[in-house]
């Protein structure tokens, strides 16, 4: 795991946007794994800016989102399809047909999960997968106790997640308790994963993910198995890590190596 500790949420968003920019410049027809939630919004704003300035293009990109509420169709304002349209897709040159979000309105949600996996495979697999982390250590809607090799499936949300996401729903609005989510195995298949976390309320989950044991009790700890996982966090989200100075030291050394390689 590469642990990158930055000053604040703005730096985290810019660092994340740089990773996607580099990827798109290297491979115009990249397959991107995308995420919802509050954390990626600033990164998406940065990508929109760079797209509108013609620095990067999404014209050949295919995208797959991590998860969706079961029972909401894409026109529902709380659906993750709606979120993606509002926060990113409607503002960039991506082709809507190339964007995929698990179908929350699937007639048969079980077969829809297998179809989602097949679409990812047919696209050639995910090049870079963006992730957030829940306070309970979830990635996507893979809640604690999720199988570490799980695939896309229907998952029940924990009370903690339902409570955390209640802020997006009106008091009298139906809030789903079920989801379709990529599995942890699906996420681990991505060539690269980039997890962003900011704020003090993520500090415990971040410490469990990076320094805790590999355990289904903290689904994000599965990223310890990934060959190219970049954890980009601000000082507040890093505050419960034991080895902060070591991670910063590694980043300094990495930078020196990159500078040397660039000078060759
Ligand atoms: P947040 O959600 O970005 O809204 O904190 C992250 C997550 O639950 O994965």
UniProtKB/TrEMBL annotation:
One Pfam family cited in the UniProt record for this chain: Glucosamine_iso
Catalytic activity from the UniProt record: alpha-D-glucosamine 6-phosphate + H2O = beta-D-fructose 6-phosphate + NH4(+)
EC nos: 3.5.99.6
Any one GO cellular component localisation term in the record: cytoplasm
Keyword Hydrolase recorded: yes
Protein's UniProt keywords contain Flavoprotein: no
GO biological process: carbohydrate metabolic process; glucosamine catabolic process; N-acetylglucosamine catabolic process; N-acetylneuraminate catabolic process
Highest taxon in the source lineage: Bacteria
Pathway field: Amino-sugar metabolism; N-acetylneuraminate degradation; D-fructose 6-phosphate from N-acetylneuraminate: step 5/5
InterPro entries, sorted: Glc/Gal-6P_isomerase, Glucosamine6P_isomerase, Glucosamine6P_isomerase_CS, NagB/RpiA_transferase-like
Role summary: Catalyzes the reversible isomerization-deamination of glucosamine 6-phosphate (GlcN6P) to form fructose 6-phosphate (Fru6P) and ammonium ion.
HAMAP family: GlcN6P_deamin
PANTHER family linked: GLUCOSAMINE-6-PHOSPHATE ISOMERASE
Entry similarity comment: Belongs to the glucosamine/galactosamine-6-phosphate isomerase family. NagB subfamily.
Self-association and partners: Homohexamer.
Protein name per Swiss-Prot or TrEMBL: Glucosamine-6-phosphate deaminase
Organism whose genome encodes this protein: Pseudoalteromonas piscicida
